[in-house]
Amino acid sequence: MHYKRDEAFRYSFNEPVPAEFSIYLKNSDRPGTGTGDSKLLDISPGGTRMETFFDIPVNRDEVALRLRFNIFQRPIETDGVMVWKERVGTGWMYGIDFDENASVAKAIVDDLKLRRQAER
Question: What is the CATH number of domain 11-119?
Answer without folding.
Answer: 2.40.10.220
